[in-house]
Write a structure and sequence with these properties.
This protein has 114 residues and is an alpha/beta fold. The protein has a five-stranded mixed β-sheet. α2 runs parallel beside α3. It is globular and about 35 Å long.
Length: 114
Amino acid sequence: MRCVLTIAGSDSSGGAGVQADIKTMTANGVYAMSAITALTAQNTTGVYDILEVTPKFLENQLDAIFTDIRPHGVKVGMVSSKEITEVIFKKLKLYKAENIVVDPVMVATSGSKL
């Protein structure tokens, strides 16, 4: 079975972010894995709060994934800071990740900035 990693934010309403990526991956018959960049408190009307993970925690998530179940593809979504972007770049390069899709998310459907 093909494995795909989503590196993105978590949407508490389930309509976007890691939750939506996992639904899409599962519907397409691939094993979904995730590395969370930020937690959001949001619903269809707006984003109430964002809690970014530390760069070190994201590094640990990516190391845990790439050293055990190597993904066949990677999808990058919400990246909330320069430091988080740098970690993603460094780790994808280190592990020679392939089939990378970058889908940057800067504004939620509600219009809230992420």
